[in-house]
């Protein structure tokens, strides 16, 4: 990390930290005062998005259904597949709570980040203890991408949008497969809501 003055905040983004077993201990040893921000979204949608992204790079991978289940007729979900395992948020969170109190972890709703980016960013700024500088003036919705884009400053004409790998149309998945995965994630989601004190309404 770069040297930081007491009046500054240094931020770093690595999505895999949340699911990496060694990460909480290493970050705690570096700075136990670190504030953590985690973006979460409906785990079923997240898994489909993950698969869609992988499929664009490796078109010959097995089907989503084939990777999701050890035995679909018995409803046995394959939790060794990363796309499924990542969405078991409460499992990963337990690892972090061994080192950091919940008061140092802020959860951003991935869904609301799309529908109300300024509202979610307002909560992030409050959590960091900084003035609300980023407001709705800084966003516009890109209909092609299906995501909001960030205007660098209020007067800027060149917005910053998500890269080419984001906003792809998801692969069509059998509704029954989606329903089975919803059933699988439900107890994990409920425990997650209870642990963080926030209902993300993924049902």
From TrEMBL:
GO biological process, one term: heparan sulfate proteoglycan biosynthetic process
Disulfide-linked positions: 149-161
EC number: 2.8.2.-
Sulfotransferase domain: residues covered: 30-186
Binding site for 3'-phosphoadenylyl sulfate: 41, 49, 166-170
Keywords: Disulfide bond, Glycoprotein, Transferase
A Pfam family assignment: Sulfotransfer_1
One function term, GO molecular function aspect: [heparan sulfate]-glucosamine 3-sulfotransferase activity
Gene3D superfamilies: P-loop containing nucleotide triphosphate hydrolases
Family the UniProt entry places it in: Belongs to the sulfotransferase 1 family.
Protein name: Sulfotransferase
Lineage: Eukaryota, Metazoa, Chordata, Craniata, Vertebrata
């Amino acid at each position: 990390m770069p040297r930081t003055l007491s009046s500054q905040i240094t931020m770093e983004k690595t999505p895999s930290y949340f699911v990496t077993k060694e990460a909480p201990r290493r970050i705690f040893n570096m700075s136990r005062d670190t504030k953590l921000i985690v973006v979460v979204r409906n785990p079923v949608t997240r898994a489909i998005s993950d698969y869609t992204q992988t499929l664009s790079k490796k078109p010959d991978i097995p089907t989503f259904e084939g990777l999701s289940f050890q035995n679909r007729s018995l409803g046995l979900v394959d939790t060794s597949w990363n796309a499924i395992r990542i969405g078991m948020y409460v499992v990963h969170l337990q690892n972090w709570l061994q080192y950091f109190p919940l008061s140092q972890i802020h959860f951003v709703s991935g869904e609301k980040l799309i529908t109300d980016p300024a509202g979610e960013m307002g909560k992030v700024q409050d959590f960091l203890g900084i003035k609300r500088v980023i407001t709705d003036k800084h966003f516009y919705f890109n209909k092609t991408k299906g995501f909001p884009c960030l205007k660098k400053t209020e007067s800027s004409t060149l917005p910053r949008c998500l890269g080419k790998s984001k906003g792809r149309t998801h692969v069509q998945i059998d509704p029954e497969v989606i329903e089975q995965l919803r059933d699988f994630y439900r107890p994990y989601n409920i425990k997650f809501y209870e642990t963080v004190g926030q209902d993300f309404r993924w049902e």
